[in-house]
Design brief:
The complex is a heterodimer of chains A (about 230) and B (about 260). Chain A has about 230 residues and is an all-alpha fold. Chain A has 10 helices and no strands. Chain B has one domain. Helices cover about 80% and strands about 0% of the residues of chain B. Chain B is built from 11 helices and no strands. In chain B, helix 3 runs parallel beside helix 7 and helix 3 packs across helix 10. Chain B is globular and about 60 Å long. Classes of the chains: A mainly alpha (about 230), B mainly alpha (about 260). The interface between A and B is large, with 38 and 39 residues.
């Protein structure tokens, strides 16, 4: 549909992205965006409805780990996201595994699995901020940031330089490039560059997320939801 | 006497809407979010033809199409979910008890949402258009204003009608997420002449396409939908009246049912 709006130019697209097929390029990117948005919105919506109904206060008072409850809540939506991803990329995956070998499927699954870790951490933190500000509106902002600055639908080089700073902090950047490289060209070259970066970002999200989670959740436990 | 009562109710509802919806961190976040969506959507579409990124006319067409997307999205969330949000918070029960006309209460949310969209659209035009190198000056300012008001009223009318469905849905946010992307596509987000045949037929029968066409003609000076300007105006006004009448009638039925059975 997007191509119809402006008239598709495959050669121009290749010059900018290094890929000939815009549909495959954006199909991989958009399915990863869908997974990210589902994880973030399911946790955010759950925490918002729990804080409105008083369930969150009960959860905070109980010995249950809030992070475990939140992550478990998002599992059905995550499964739905993975189904979307599988259906969208099935033809590409089929061609890639036949052309380049089964390693393509194994490595792309590994990349997606590692990439999920920072996404979950980001979603839990967004959920806690929603509980603090008592408004789910933050979800819209996070979804817009993910959509615009993740580089999933277009190369980041077309963004003004100052705006690319956001992109480097988003985990999706480190998932989409290797996935595209693997599924479209079967090229392993980018994996060596992006996997260490993905591991570093997962570690960074883990450590910063743990500090922020402790701070936010203890503030909620101490002061309640009306702070 | 009766007119004065209606005027007082509207002003009270509008003031309530402004106080509850247009202040605090939520309003600020929402207004800042719109330019980010617009930038992302324009780039995601125009990357299919990178030359269009350097063509000011294509970009201008697309940017105004995306402004319509923001308009529809705002209305679905703010007006469409207004009664459902109040139902969840227990406010609707109290409003029902005060005997305030619920339809008027719902329409007041669209007035607040119009102010909200105006703020979002202005921020987007001020921030995103210069980034993309698009000239924000409209080709025909008067036509743009007419098209904008009609599109906004139409989007509110659709959201008013949709708010009835939201009240009875279990997870309305899934449906809203779907509608906020599909509705703009069949309303002229993509220019009519470039859409596939099936979409063209939907655009022709979709009442929202006509005010959007007026807005686009005012903004860019280009005609997309093969419709006479007066016909587009007549279609828009008739559709707005029909949508509001239907929405108000359905809310009145729902109000009776809520009073009888509770929430």
């Amino acid at each position: 549909m997007a191509g119809l709006a402006v008239g598709r130019d495959e050669e121009g697209f290749y010059k900018l992205t290094g890929y000939w097929d815009p549909v495959a390029y954006q199909a991989i990117g958009s399915s990863i965006i869908v997974i990210s948005m589902l994880i973030v919105s399911s946790i955010g919506q759950y925490i918002n409805s729990a804080s409105l109904s008083g369930r969150l206060e009960m959860l905070l008072a109980s010995p249950a780990r809030l992070s475990v409850v939140l992550i478990s809540t998002s599992i059905p939506m995550m499964i739905f996201g993975l189904v979307v991803f599988t259906l969208t990329t099935a033809p590409l995956m089929y061609v890639a595994t036949h052309t380049h070998g089964p390693y393509v499927a194994i490595i792309s699954t590994a990349v997606l699995s590692i990439g999920m870790i920072p996404l979950f951490i980001m979603a839990v933190l967004v959920g806690l901020v929603i509980a603090r500000i008592r408004s789910p509106i933050l979800l819209n902002l996070v979804q817009a940031l993910v959509f615009t600055f993740s580089g999933a639908l277009y190369p980041l080089t077309i963004l003004p330089e100052i705006l690319r700073i956001f992109s480097q902090a988003l985990p999706i950047v480190y998932i989409v490039d290797p996935m595209r490289s693997l599924l479209i060209t079967g090229d392993l070259g980018i994996i060596g560059l992006k996997i260490p970066a993905l591991l570093i970002i997962a570690l960074a999200y883990g450590s910063i997320g743990a500090i922020l989670y402790r701070r936010f959740s203890s503030a909620l436990r101490r002061g309640g939801l009306n702070v | 006497m009766y007119r004065a009562r209606i005027a007082r109710l509207i002003s009270t509802e509008l003031w309530r809407g402004v106080l509850s919806e247009l202040r605090g961190v939520s309003a600020l976040i929402e207004i800042l979010t719109s330019p980010i969506w617009i930038l992302g959507l324009v780039l995601a579409i125009s990357i299919q033809n990178p030359a269009s990124l350097k063509d000011p006319i294509s970009l201008k067409n697309l940017c105004w199409g995306i402004v319509v997307f923001i308009m529809i999205s705002d209305k679905l969330w703010l007006v469409g979910h207004h009664l459902e949000r109040e139902k969840r918070l227990g406010i609707l029960e109290q409003i029902l008890a005060t005997n305030t006309p619920i339809a008027l209460h719902a329409i007041s949310a669209s007035l607040t949402a119009m102010i909200w969209t105006m703020a979002s659209a202005s921020t987007s035009i001020a921030l995103v258009f210069p980034i993309l190198g698009v000239d924000p000056r409209p080709a025909n300012p008067a036509l743009l204003v007419v098209g904008y008001i009609l599109s906004d009223m139409m989007a509110s009318g659709i959201a008013l009608l949709y708010s009835n469905a939201v009240l009875v849905m279990r997870r309305p946010w899934i449906a809203t997420n779907l509608f906020q992307f599909t509705l703009p596509v069949v309303s002229g987000l993509l220019p009519y002449n470039l859409s596939p045949e099936a979409i063209k037929r939907i655009i022709e029968v979709n009442p929202l396409s006509y005010p959007v066409e007026i807005l686009r003609r005012g903004a860019t000076g280009h005609q997309s939908l093969p419709a006479d300007l007066y016909m587009a105006l007549a279609m828009s006004i008739a559709s707005i009246l029909a949508l509001y009448s239907l929405g108000i009638a359905l809310i009145a039925i729902l109000r009776k049912s809520m009073l009888k059975k509770g929430l």
